[in-house]
Design brief:
By secondary structure, this protein is α+β, with helices and mostly antiparallel strands. About 35% of the residues lie in helices and about 20% in strands. The protein has helices spanning about 5-20, 25-30, 35, 75-80, 95-110, 115, 120-125, 130-145, 150-155, 175-185, 190, 195-205, 210-215, 245-255, 265-285, 380-395, 400-405, 425-435; strands at about 1-5, 45-55, 60-65, 130, 170, 225, 230, 235-240, 295-300, 305-315, 360-365, 370-375, 410, 415-420, 450-460, 465-470, 480.
Amino acid sequence: MATSSSPLVTRVGLRVLEQGGNAADAAVAMAGMPALAEPMMSGLGGDTMVMVWSANEQRVFGLNGSGMAPSGTSLERLGSVPLMPEHGAASVTIPGALDGWCTMLERFGTRSLQELWEPVITAARDGYPVGESIAGFWAVGAALMGQSASSELREVFLPHGSAPQPGQRMRLPQLADTLERVAREGRQGFYEGPVAEAIATTISAGGVPTTTADVAAQQHHSEWVEPLSVGFRGRDVLGMPPNSQGVVALHALGILDGLPLAAMDEAERLHHEIEAIRLGFALATRPQGGNSGDTSYMCAVDGEGNAVSLMTSISGLFGSGLVAGDTGVLLNNRAAQFSSQPGHPNALAPGRRPRHSILPAMVLRDGLPEFVMGVIGGNAHPQGLTQILVNALDLGMNPQQAVDAPRFKLIMQSGAVHIDPQFNPAVGHALVARGHQLGDSYGFVGFKGGAQMVRLHRDATGQCTSLEAGVDHRLDGVALGF
Protein backbone atom coordinates (compact mmCIF):
# COMPACT_ATOMS: atom_id res chain seq x y z
CA MET A 1 0.00 0.00 0.00
CA ALA A 2 1.08 3.56 -0.72
CA THR A 3 -0.52 6.78 0.54
CA SER A 4 0.06 10.50 0.06
CA SER A 5 -1.86 13.77 -0.23
CA SER A 6 -1.75 13.65 -4.06
CA PRO A 7 -2.92 10.93 -6.48
CA LEU A 8 0.12 11.68 -8.64
CA VAL A 9 2.45 10.90 -5.74
CA THR A 10 0.59 7.78 -4.55
CA ARG A 11 0.44 6.30 -8.06
CA VAL A 12 4.24 6.55 -8.40
CA GLY A 13 4.68 4.60 -5.17
CA LEU A 14 2.11 1.96 -6.07
CA ARG A 15 3.80 1.45 -9.45
CA VAL A 16 7.10 0.67 -7.72
CA LEU A 17 5.44 -1.81 -5.36
CA GLU A 18 3.57 -3.48 -8.23
CA GLN A 19 6.88 -3.93 -10.05
CA GLY A 20 8.52 -5.65 -7.09
CA GLY A 21 10.21 -2.74 -5.35
CA ASN A 22 10.13 -2.53 -1.59
CA ALA A 23 8.75 0.13 0.76
CA ALA A 24 11.99 2.15 0.74
CA ASP A 25 12.04 2.18 -3.06
CA ALA A 26 8.40 3.29 -3.17
CA ALA A 27 8.94 6.03 -0.59
CA VAL A 28 11.92 7.51 -2.43
CA ALA A 29 10.02 7.37 -5.72
CA MET A 30 7.12 9.24 -4.10
CA ALA A 31 9.41 11.73 -2.35
CA GLY A 32 10.51 13.21 -5.68
CA MET A 33 6.99 13.92 -6.95
CA PRO A 34 5.79 16.61 -4.47
CA ALA A 35 8.26 19.04 -6.08
CA LEU A 36 5.70 18.99 -8.90
CA ALA A 37 2.44 18.00 -7.24
CA GLU A 38 2.85 20.20 -4.13
CA PRO A 39 5.70 22.60 -5.00
CA MET A 40 4.69 25.21 -2.44
CA MET A 41 5.18 22.60 0.28
CA SER A 42 8.04 20.31 -0.70
CA GLY A 43 10.89 19.67 -3.10
CA LEU A 44 14.63 19.24 -3.49
CA GLY A 45 15.22 22.50 -1.63
CA GLY A 46 13.75 21.15 1.62
CA ASP A 47 14.37 18.62 4.38
CA THR A 48 13.17 15.16 5.30
CA MET A 49 12.74 12.89 8.31
CA VAL A 50 11.93 9.21 7.99
CA MET A 51 11.07 6.15 10.05
CA VAL A 52 11.81 2.75 8.53
CA TRP A 53 10.58 -0.58 9.87
CA SER A 54 12.94 -3.28 8.61
CA ALA A 55 11.16 -6.63 8.43
CA ASN A 56 14.53 -8.35 8.13
CA GLU A 57 15.99 -6.73 11.26
CA GLN A 58 12.66 -6.47 13.12
CA ARG A 59 13.29 -2.94 14.33
CA VAL A 60 12.64 0.71 13.54
CA PHE A 61 15.29 3.11 12.28
CA GLY A 62 14.98 6.89 12.38
CA LEU A 63 16.65 9.08 9.75
CA ASN A 64 17.22 12.82 10.21
CA GLY A 65 17.74 14.52 6.86
CA SER A 66 17.40 18.13 8.01
CA GLY A 67 19.78 20.86 6.83
CA MET A 68 22.12 23.25 8.58
CA ALA A 69 22.45 27.04 8.57
CA PRO A 70 25.12 28.37 6.16
CA SER A 71 28.54 29.51 7.39
CA GLY A 72 27.71 33.17 6.76
CA THR A 73 24.71 33.09 9.09
CA SER A 74 24.86 35.42 12.09
CA LEU A 75 22.52 37.00 14.61
CA GLU A 76 24.62 40.18 14.43
CA ARG A 77 23.81 40.56 10.73
CA LEU A 78 20.11 40.24 11.50
CA GLY A 79 20.19 42.92 14.15
CA SER A 80 17.67 43.17 16.96
CA VAL A 81 14.48 41.52 15.68
CA PRO A 82 11.78 39.69 17.67
CA LEU A 83 11.47 36.84 15.17
CA MET A 84 13.47 35.40 12.29
CA PRO A 85 12.60 36.60 8.76
CA GLU A 86 10.00 34.43 7.05
CA HIS A 87 11.38 34.95 3.53
CA GLY A 88 14.61 35.72 1.75
CA ALA A 89 18.15 34.40 2.15
CA ALA A 90 18.20 34.76 5.94
CA SER A 91 15.40 32.18 6.15
CA VAL A 92 17.26 29.44 4.22
CA THR A 93 19.06 26.37 5.55
CA ILE A 94 21.10 24.09 3.28
CA PRO A 95 18.65 21.49 1.88
CA GLY A 96 18.96 18.07 3.50
CA ALA A 97 16.17 16.09 1.82
CA LEU A 98 18.09 14.67 -1.12
CA ASP A 99 20.90 13.38 1.09
CA GLY A 100 18.31 11.76 3.36
CA TRP A 101 16.54 9.97 0.52
CA CYS A 102 19.85 8.74 -0.92
CA THR A 103 20.94 7.55 2.52
CA MET A 104 17.73 5.52 2.98
CA LEU A 105 17.90 4.09 -0.54
CA GLU A 106 21.51 2.98 -0.06
CA ARG A 107 20.69 1.11 3.15
CA PHE A 108 17.26 -0.33 2.43
CA GLY A 109 16.43 0.13 -1.26
CA THR A 110 16.75 -2.25 -4.20
CA ARG A 111 16.32 0.15 -7.14
CA SER A 112 18.37 3.05 -8.50
CA LEU A 113 17.31 6.66 -8.13
CA GLN A 114 17.40 6.95 -11.91
CA GLU A 115 14.81 4.19 -12.26
CA LEU A 116 12.63 5.44 -9.42
CA TRP A 117 12.49 9.03 -10.61
CA GLU A 118 11.83 8.33 -14.29
CA PRO A 119 8.08 9.06 -13.93
CA VAL A 120 8.84 12.25 -11.97
CA ILE A 121 11.22 13.54 -14.63
CA THR A 122 8.75 12.71 -17.39
CA ALA A 123 5.91 14.52 -15.61
CA ALA A 124 8.07 17.61 -14.99
CA ARG A 125 9.11 17.77 -18.63
CA ASP A 126 5.87 16.77 -20.38
CA GLY A 127 3.40 18.28 -17.92
CA TYR A 128 0.99 17.19 -15.19
CA PRO A 129 -2.46 18.36 -13.93
CA VAL A 130 -2.65 20.52 -10.81
CA GLY A 131 -4.79 19.11 -7.99
CA GLU A 132 -7.87 20.92 -6.74
CA SER A 133 -6.82 21.60 -3.14
CA ILE A 134 -3.24 22.27 -4.20
CA ALA A 135 -4.42 24.90 -6.68
CA GLY A 136 -5.98 26.68 -3.71
CA PHE A 137 -2.74 26.54 -1.71
CA TRP A 138 -0.86 27.68 -4.80
CA ALA A 139 -3.03 30.80 -4.96
CA VAL A 140 -2.85 31.45 -1.20
CA GLY A 141 0.92 30.99 -1.22
CA ALA A 142 1.38 33.35 -4.14
CA ALA A 143 -0.71 36.01 -2.39
CA LEU A 144 1.12 35.59 0.94
CA MET A 145 4.49 35.73 -0.80
CA GLY A 146 3.61 38.98 -2.59
CA GLN A 147 6.71 41.04 -3.32
CA SER A 148 8.90 38.57 -1.44
CA ALA A 149 8.69 36.19 -4.39
CA SER A 150 11.81 36.33 -6.55
CA SER A 151 11.59 36.86 -10.30
CA GLU A 152 12.76 33.26 -10.74
CA LEU A 153 9.88 31.99 -8.59
CA ARG A 154 7.40 33.99 -10.62
CA GLU A 155 8.85 32.67 -13.86
CA VAL A 156 8.82 29.01 -12.79
CA PHE A 157 5.70 28.72 -10.64
CA LEU A 158 3.54 31.66 -11.76
CA PRO A 159 4.22 31.56 -15.50
CA HIS A 160 1.23 33.72 -16.45
CA GLY A 161 1.39 35.95 -13.42
CA SER A 162 -0.99 33.89 -11.32
CA ALA A 163 -1.42 30.47 -9.78
CA PRO A 164 -2.71 27.66 -12.01
CA GLN A 165 -6.33 26.58 -11.91
CA PRO A 166 -7.43 23.10 -10.78
CA GLY A 167 -6.68 20.63 -13.55
CA GLN A 168 -4.44 23.06 -15.44
CA ARG A 169 -1.38 21.41 -16.98
CA MET A 170 1.96 22.59 -15.61
CA ARG A 171 5.43 22.00 -17.02
CA LEU A 172 8.67 22.56 -15.07
CA PRO A 173 11.47 22.04 -17.61
CA GLN A 174 14.22 23.58 -15.46
CA LEU A 175 13.34 21.30 -12.58
CA ALA A 176 13.18 18.35 -14.98
CA ASP A 177 16.81 19.00 -15.97
CA THR A 178 17.86 19.12 -12.30
CA LEU A 179 15.91 15.96 -11.41
CA GLU A 180 17.53 14.20 -14.36
CA ARG A 181 21.01 15.28 -13.29
CA VAL A 182 20.45 14.17 -9.70
CA ALA A 183 18.87 10.86 -10.74
CA ARG A 184 21.89 10.15 -12.93
CA GLU A 185 24.66 11.40 -10.62
CA GLY A 186 23.12 10.82 -7.20
CA ARG A 187 23.68 13.23 -4.34
CA GLN A 188 26.83 14.61 -6.00
CA GLY A 189 24.65 15.99 -8.76
CA PHE A 190 22.97 18.19 -6.16
CA TYR A 191 25.60 18.96 -3.52
CA GLU A 192 28.43 19.52 -5.99
CA GLY A 193 28.68 21.16 -9.43
CA PRO A 194 26.22 23.58 -11.08
CA VAL A 195 23.26 22.96 -8.74
CA ALA A 196 25.37 23.51 -5.61
CA GLU A 197 26.86 26.65 -7.15
CA ALA A 198 23.38 27.99 -7.93
CA ILE A 199 22.25 27.36 -4.33
CA ALA A 200 25.31 29.05 -2.81
CA THR A 201 25.15 31.99 -5.23
CA THR A 202 21.43 32.60 -4.63
CA ILE A 203 21.74 32.61 -0.84
CA SER A 204 24.89 34.78 -0.96
CA ALA A 205 23.21 37.29 -3.27
CA GLY A 206 20.50 37.69 -0.64
CA GLY A 207 23.01 38.82 1.98
CA VAL A 208 24.02 35.58 3.71
CA PRO A 209 27.54 34.56 2.57
CA THR A 210 27.33 30.90 1.54
CA THR A 211 30.00 28.78 -0.13
CA THR A 212 29.81 25.64 -2.24
CA ALA A 213 31.62 24.00 0.67
CA ASP A 214 28.58 24.81 2.85
CA VAL A 215 26.38 22.97 0.36
CA ALA A 216 28.80 20.06 0.01
CA ALA A 217 28.99 19.72 3.80
CA GLN A 218 25.34 18.60 3.84
CA GLN A 219 26.31 15.60 1.70
CA HIS A 220 26.46 12.41 3.79
CA HIS A 221 25.30 14.47 6.78
CA SER A 222 21.97 12.71 7.31
CA GLU A 223 21.93 10.82 10.60
CA TRP A 224 20.49 7.47 11.62
CA VAL A 225 18.90 8.11 15.02
CA GLU A 226 17.11 6.06 17.64
CA PRO A 227 13.41 6.99 17.78
CA LEU A 228 11.95 8.03 21.13
CA SER A 229 8.87 6.22 22.40
CA VAL A 230 6.05 6.47 24.91
CA GLY A 231 3.41 3.98 25.99
CA PHE A 232 -0.18 4.74 24.99
CA ARG A 233 -3.08 2.30 25.29
CA GLY A 234 -0.75 -0.71 25.38
CA ARG A 235 1.24 0.40 22.33
CA ASP A 236 4.61 2.05 21.80
CA VAL A 237 4.22 5.35 19.95
CA LEU A 238 7.47 6.29 18.22
CA GLY A 239 8.63 9.83 17.44
CA MET A 240 11.82 11.36 16.12
CA PRO A 241 14.19 12.88 18.69
CA PRO A 242 15.07 16.60 18.60
CA ASN A 243 15.56 18.63 16.48
CA SER A 244 12.14 17.16 15.54
CA GLN A 245 9.16 18.24 17.65
CA GLY A 246 8.06 14.61 17.92
CA VAL A 247 8.73 14.80 21.66
CA VAL A 248 5.75 17.18 21.99
CA ALA A 249 3.31 14.48 20.87
CA LEU A 250 5.00 11.85 23.04
CA HIS A 251 4.71 14.04 26.15
CA ALA A 252 1.03 14.69 25.43
CA LEU A 253 0.21 11.03 24.80
CA GLY A 254 2.09 9.95 27.92
CA ILE A 255 -0.07 12.33 29.99
CA LEU A 256 -3.30 11.23 28.31
CA ASP A 257 -2.54 7.55 28.81
CA GLY A 258 -3.48 7.98 32.46
CA LEU A 259 -6.93 9.42 31.72
CA PRO A 260 -10.18 7.55 30.84
CA LEU A 261 -10.83 9.60 27.69
CA ALA A 262 -13.37 7.16 26.22
CA ALA A 263 -15.66 7.68 29.22
CA MET A 264 -15.70 11.48 28.92
CA ASP A 265 -18.08 13.70 26.98
CA GLU A 266 -16.59 15.47 23.97
CA ALA A 267 -15.86 18.82 25.63
CA GLU A 268 -14.21 17.23 28.67
CA ARG A 269 -12.08 14.99 26.45
CA LEU A 270 -10.99 17.89 24.25
CA HIS A 271 -10.15 19.95 27.34
CA HIS A 272 -7.72 17.26 28.51
CA GLU A 273 -6.24 16.83 25.03
CA ILE A 274 -5.67 20.59 24.72
CA GLU A 275 -4.01 20.84 28.12
CA ALA A 276 -1.84 17.77 27.49
CA ILE A 277 -0.63 19.30 24.23
CA ARG A 278 -0.02 22.63 25.95
CA LEU A 279 2.15 20.78 28.48
CA GLY A 280 3.86 18.88 25.67
CA PHE A 281 5.00 22.12 24.10
CA ALA A 282 6.03 23.53 27.48
CA LEU A 283 8.07 20.45 28.39
CA ALA A 284 9.81 20.53 24.99
CA THR A 285 11.21 23.76 23.48
CA ARG A 286 8.40 26.26 23.27
CA PRO A 287 8.27 27.62 19.70
CA GLN A 288 10.03 30.96 19.38
CA GLY A 289 10.51 31.11 15.62
CA GLY A 290 8.03 31.05 12.75
CA ASN A 291 4.79 29.13 13.30
CA SER A 292 4.02 28.31 9.68
CA GLY A 293 4.77 24.96 8.13
CA ASP A 294 3.58 23.23 4.99
CA THR A 295 4.61 19.68 4.45
CA SER A 296 4.16 16.52 2.38
CA TYR A 297 3.70 13.17 4.08
CA MET A 298 3.73 9.74 2.46
CA CYS A 299 4.02 6.16 3.60
CA ALA A 300 4.51 2.75 2.03
CA VAL A 301 4.13 -0.84 3.22
CA ASP A 302 5.37 -3.73 1.08
CA GLY A 303 4.53 -7.43 0.88
CA GLU A 304 7.50 -8.40 3.05
CA GLY A 305 6.24 -6.22 5.90
CA ASN A 306 8.71 -3.34 5.51
CA ALA A 307 7.16 0.05 6.24
CA VAL A 308 8.31 3.62 5.66
CA SER A 309 6.88 6.77 7.24
CA LEU A 310 8.33 9.77 5.39
CA MET A 311 7.82 13.51 5.77
CA THR A 312 9.41 16.22 3.67
CA SER A 313 8.98 20.00 3.56
CA ILE A 314 10.33 23.37 2.45
CA SER A 315 8.63 24.78 5.58
CA GLY A 316 6.27 27.69 4.77
CA LEU A 317 4.27 28.12 1.57
CA PHE A 318 6.81 28.57 -1.25
CA GLY A 319 9.59 28.50 1.34
CA SER A 320 11.99 31.41 1.18
CA GLY A 321 10.56 32.70 -2.09
CA LEU A 322 13.95 32.05 -3.73
CA VAL A 323 14.62 29.69 -6.63
CA ALA A 324 18.25 28.64 -7.03
CA GLY A 325 19.30 30.13 -10.35
CA ASP A 326 17.99 28.20 -13.34
CA THR A 327 17.66 24.88 -11.47
CA GLY A 328 13.95 25.13 -10.71
CA VAL A 329 14.80 24.26 -7.07
CA LEU A 330 12.71 26.28 -4.61
CA LEU A 331 14.72 26.93 -1.43
CA ASN A 332 13.24 26.37 2.01
CA ASN A 333 12.64 28.94 4.75
CA ARG A 334 13.37 26.52 7.59
CA ALA A 335 15.73 29.02 9.28
CA ALA A 336 12.60 30.99 10.18
CA GLN A 337 12.11 28.30 12.85
CA PHE A 338 15.28 29.41 14.66
CA SER A 339 15.07 31.83 17.55
CA SER A 340 16.55 35.30 16.93
CA GLN A 341 17.29 35.72 20.65
CA PRO A 342 20.95 35.25 21.71
CA GLY A 343 21.39 32.46 24.24
CA HIS A 344 18.14 30.70 23.36
CA PRO A 345 18.65 26.92 22.94
CA ASN A 346 17.24 27.23 19.43
CA ALA A 347 19.24 30.38 18.53
CA LEU A 348 20.44 30.85 14.97
CA ALA A 349 24.11 29.93 14.42
CA PRO A 350 26.25 28.62 11.53
CA GLY A 351 26.13 24.85 11.12
CA ARG A 352 23.12 24.42 13.44
CA ARG A 353 19.84 22.72 12.68
CA PRO A 354 16.70 24.59 13.84
CA ARG A 355 13.78 23.23 15.82
CA HIS A 356 11.89 21.24 13.22
CA SER A 357 8.17 20.75 12.72
CA ILE A 358 8.64 17.48 10.79
CA LEU A 359 7.65 14.30 12.67
CA PRO A 360 6.84 11.07 10.85
CA ALA A 361 5.31 8.53 13.21
CA MET A 362 4.87 4.83 13.76
CA VAL A 363 3.03 2.83 16.43
CA LEU A 364 4.12 -0.64 17.53
CA ARG A 365 1.96 -3.27 19.19
CA ASP A 366 3.76 -6.24 20.72
CA GLY A 367 6.90 -5.00 18.99
CA LEU A 368 5.41 -4.92 15.47
CA PRO A 369 4.02 -1.98 13.45
CA GLU A 370 0.30 -1.42 13.88
CA PHE A 371 0.04 2.16 12.55
CA VAL A 372 2.16 4.12 10.11
CA MET A 373 1.02 7.73 10.14
CA GLY A 374 1.71 11.43 9.89
CA VAL A 375 -0.01 14.82 10.07
CA ILE A 376 1.17 17.96 8.28
CA GLY A 377 0.83 21.66 9.08
CA GLY A 378 3.67 23.10 11.20
CA ASN A 379 2.83 23.03 14.90
CA ALA A 380 -0.30 21.07 14.00
CA HIS A 381 1.88 17.96 13.48
CA PRO A 382 2.07 16.78 17.11
CA GLN A 383 -1.42 18.07 17.85
CA GLY A 384 -3.02 16.17 14.98
CA LEU A 385 -1.03 13.04 15.74
CA THR A 386 -2.27 13.07 19.33
CA GLN A 387 -5.91 13.61 18.37
CA ILE A 388 -5.93 10.97 15.63
CA LEU A 389 -4.49 8.31 17.93
CA VAL A 390 -7.12 9.17 20.54
CA ASN A 391 -9.75 8.84 17.81
CA ALA A 392 -8.45 5.40 16.83
CA LEU A 393 -7.52 3.87 20.18
CA ASP A 394 -9.97 5.51 22.61
CA LEU A 395 -12.98 6.12 20.37
CA GLY A 396 -12.61 3.03 18.16
CA MET A 397 -12.56 4.88 14.83
CA ASN A 398 -11.16 3.25 11.71
CA PRO A 399 -8.28 5.08 9.96
CA GLN A 400 -10.54 7.01 7.59
CA GLN A 401 -12.85 8.13 10.39
CA ALA A 402 -9.88 9.02 12.59
CA VAL A 403 -8.24 11.34 10.07
CA ASP A 404 -11.49 12.90 8.84
CA ALA A 405 -12.84 13.73 12.32
CA PRO A 406 -12.84 17.40 13.38
CA ARG A 407 -9.73 18.65 15.14
CA PHE A 408 -8.54 21.62 17.16
CA LYS A 409 -5.28 23.54 16.93
CA LEU A 410 -3.59 25.25 19.87
CA ILE A 411 -1.77 28.45 18.87
CA MET A 412 1.30 28.55 21.08
CA GLN A 413 2.09 32.22 20.62
CA SER A 414 -1.32 33.41 21.87
CA GLY A 415 -2.58 30.40 23.80
CA ALA A 416 -5.85 30.49 21.83
CA VAL A 417 -7.56 27.32 20.61
CA HIS A 418 -8.94 27.15 17.09
CA ILE A 419 -11.63 24.52 16.69
CA ASP A 420 -12.98 22.94 13.56
CA PRO A 421 -16.44 24.24 12.58
CA GLN A 422 -17.53 20.59 12.27
CA PHE A 423 -17.69 20.47 16.08
CA ASN A 424 -21.08 21.08 17.68
CA PRO A 425 -21.21 24.75 18.82
CA ALA A 426 -21.99 23.53 22.34
CA VAL A 427 -18.47 22.09 22.50
CA GLY A 428 -16.96 25.54 21.97
CA HIS A 429 -19.20 27.05 24.66
CA ALA A 430 -18.19 24.31 27.10
CA LEU A 431 -14.49 24.91 26.40
CA VAL A 432 -14.91 28.65 27.05
CA ALA A 433 -16.64 27.79 30.32
CA ARG A 434 -13.54 25.79 31.24
CA GLY A 435 -11.38 28.87 30.67
CA HIS A 436 -10.19 28.32 27.11
CA GLN A 437 -9.78 31.27 24.75
CA LEU A 438 -11.22 30.35 21.37
CA GLY A 439 -9.75 31.79 18.21
CA ASP A 440 -11.46 32.02 14.84
CA SER A 441 -12.84 28.80 13.40
CA TYR A 442 -10.63 27.17 10.84
CA GLY A 443 -10.80 28.52 7.33
CA PHE A 444 -8.67 27.59 4.35
CA VAL A 445 -5.66 29.63 5.44
CA GLY A 446 -5.95 28.39 9.02
CA PHE A 447 -5.03 24.94 7.74
CA LYS A 448 -5.29 22.29 10.43
CA GLY A 449 -3.11 19.69 8.75
CA GLY A 450 -3.85 16.87 6.33
CA ALA A 451 -3.33 13.41 7.83
CA GLN A 452 -2.73 9.85 6.70
CA MET A 453 -2.88 6.58 8.60
CA VAL A 454 -2.26 2.97 7.58
CA ARG A 455 -3.23 0.21 9.99
CA LEU A 456 -1.62 -3.22 9.77
CA HIS A 457 -4.02 -5.91 10.96
CA ARG A 458 -2.39 -9.09 12.30
CA ASP A 459 -3.41 -12.59 13.32
CA ALA A 460 -2.51 -14.30 16.60
CA THR A 461 0.94 -15.22 15.28
CA GLY A 462 1.77 -11.60 14.39
CA GLN A 463 1.43 -12.18 10.64
CA CYS A 464 -0.02 -9.18 8.79
CA THR A 465 -3.34 -10.22 7.26
CA SER A 466 -4.55 -6.96 5.74
CA LEU A 467 -3.89 -3.24 5.41
CA GLU A 468 -6.44 -0.50 6.07
CA ALA A 469 -5.82 3.16 5.24
CA GLY A 470 -7.33 6.58 5.78
CA VAL A 471 -6.39 9.76 3.91
CA ASP A 472 -7.58 13.16 5.07
CA HIS A 473 -10.39 14.72 3.03
CA ARG A 474 -8.80 18.15 3.54
CA LEU A 475 -6.35 17.61 0.65
CA ASP A 476 -6.38 15.69 -2.63
CA GLY A 477 -4.87 12.52 -1.19
CA VAL A 478 -5.52 8.88 -1.87
CA ALA A 479 -4.36 5.47 -0.61
CA LEU A 480 -3.85 2.68 -3.13
CA GLY A 481 -3.06 -0.94 -2.41
CA PHE A 482 -3.14 -4.34 -4.03
